[in-house]
Amino acid sequence: MREFAITIEYEEGVDPLMDVFIDHPEMHSRTTNCHVSGDSMWRVDRIAGPETALERIEDVYLSTQHCNECVGSRHCHTDWEHELIESHHSRRTFYTYRPTIGDCCSIPQLACIFLREGFVCAVERRSNQYHWRFLMREGGDPSGLYEAIQDELRDGLSVSFQQIQQPTHWADEGVSLAELPNEQREAVETAVRMGYYKTPRDASMADIADELSIPHSTLQYRLQEAESWIIGCFVSKSMSADGNWSLQCDKLPS
Fold first, then answer.
1. Strand pairing of 129-136 and 41-48?
2. Where along the chain do the CATH 1.10.10 domains lie?
3. Cis ω before 215 (30° cut-off from 0)
4. Contact 95, 46 (CB under 8 A)
5. What keywords sit in the KW lines (predicted)?
6. Which of 96, 193, 225, 226 is most deeply buried (CB count within 10 A of its CB)?
7. Most confident stretch, 9-13, 73-77, 133-137, 162-166
8. Which is more confident, 241 or 71?
9. E strand or H helix at 32, and its extent?
10. pTM, rounded to two decimals
């Protein structure tokens, strides 16, 4: 298996969807599922940010006048089906289906051509960047994909390519408590069960220490170690503001 990343950067004013992310750099979009074949494409995108920006995103995203995927200058003649499947004051989740590939120049369409069957991808939008990370079988042509994007790219967009040495952290983009040492996992699960993380708290650290029959200082250490790892993992899953892609959590606490 081989891993690489492609990042498209947008100037302000060239894409109405990315303009919202540029205006609100605190916004973040993650594609939770993306599937593409020679005939069609379907995906689920989750976008988080301030409510006023999400309302603007919704108007652009669901519009039939704009292709959210096109990176080329040619007009896309294919039909898109968009559906809002979750609406919350801090996030929106969209389902997209494209029944035909047609002449639309998009990264998933070109990936289907150059990477062949079997590739998977992780996709994010933040600020002025649209970032794709690919895991592909041997035999695909990532250089061909990059060159095809370069050839089709419209004015105001630029593309960069990053070759990644070893495939990393594709099993689960989330944080699993099962990965914690057993004593730390038990401390976190007990704290949650007893309401330690509620506001206001239903239990004190002393209550949890008594429940687990361990000293207060031992519980405090286990929770601090576990919380540090959980938060570190959560933050490291996102693309940083300068475009660097963090692929792994820090080493598990001992």
1. unpaired
2. 177-236
3. no
4. no
5. Transcription, Transcription regulation
6. 226
7. 9-13
8. 71
9. strand 28-36
10. 0.74
Higher pLDDT, 232 or 10: 10
Q: Residue 78 is encoded by which pair of tokens?
A: 């294919």
Please name the amino acid found at residue 212.
L
Please give, one letter per residue, the 3-state secondary structure of 80-145: CEEEEEEEECCEEEEEEEECCCCCCCEHHHHHHHHCCCCCEEEEEEECCEEEEEEEECCCCCHHHH
Contact present, 253 and 212 (Cβ < 8 Å)? no
Average pLDDT over residues 41-67: 88
Secondary structure element (H or E) that encloses residue 232, with its range: helix 216-236
- In whole angstroms, give the CA distance from residue 90 to residue 26: 12
Q: What is the DSSP string of 180-229?
A: S-HHHHHHHHHHHHTTTTSSS-SS-HHHHHHHHTS-HHHHHHHHHHHHHH
